[in-house]
Amino acid sequence: MGKYTTRGSAELDAHIDADLARIAEAAAPFSRAGVLLGGYGRGEGTPFIQPDGSQAPFNDYDLVVVVEKIDRPVREKFQALEKQLTAELGLPVDLCPYLESNLPRCEFSLLNYEMKHGHKVVWGGERILGSMPAYPHGGIPLAEGTRLLLNRGKLLLDIQRRLALPESLSSEERIRFIKFINKAWLAFGDCALLAEGKYDILYAVKKGRILDLGNCPGRDAVIEGYLKAIELKEWGDFQPLENHDIAAEYETVRELFVRFLPWYRAQVPAFRYTAPSWVRERLCDALPNLLQDRPSIPPRLFYKLQRRFS
Question: Can you list the domains of the chain with their CATH numbers?
Fold first, then answer.
């Protein structure tokens, strides 16, 4: 077991350590702390298996940067660093500013829950997130699953729009779209577990719980797709998928998505809407139509609002 992955090598750990050191060198002077989230933050990231058998980083580097103030210059500074570091490291680098004084009042979101309970501090005090609320493991708001599905549905829309073009997919696009499809399978499983109160932060736990999943659209397909997606996440060898029929797999996932999203939304208790959550709900209304080529809003507007309110 590696530091950042369940099956990665010591060489991969060293590579990621060096990348994070470079990010810290660039961003630490402008922040109190940097906190690594996502798969690498939980220790469940993906080792990308290259043709020669060596391993390379695959996941984006998603970090929260804790700052003393947030204003336009601060946001622009980190946006500029994101572009610079992404170009240098060859992987997307996301630096999301969090106001230190607001940490005790952070909303109970899936992102904040996973940040609180599954992270690595790259620079700054090890207990920098100690003031965040003690989010209960069994109390994640079900509306957070709707947000997750909205974001994964956007990735499916990306695939749909690209497949509509006549040009063949490049090798890079094929890997990216297989990744997007697997993210959708993971979202189906995660949301089904959320609906049953069985969600956990670690896939090592969830891949056992998914076997006892109750009724949901495409139950058996969800279980199978979820486990296969976790397997690829744990060992990112895309070479056996070189001839994978992406269009057919996309169609399978798209058809399930347009059934699964309304089903999941029906599991979510009524809640008090804020402006962002209201917009997200309207986007969820529009998404199945977009995926069925029956747009109720222009795709460009969907993308604009999804980026802002996701």
Answer: 10-123 (3.30.460.10), 143-309 (no CATH)
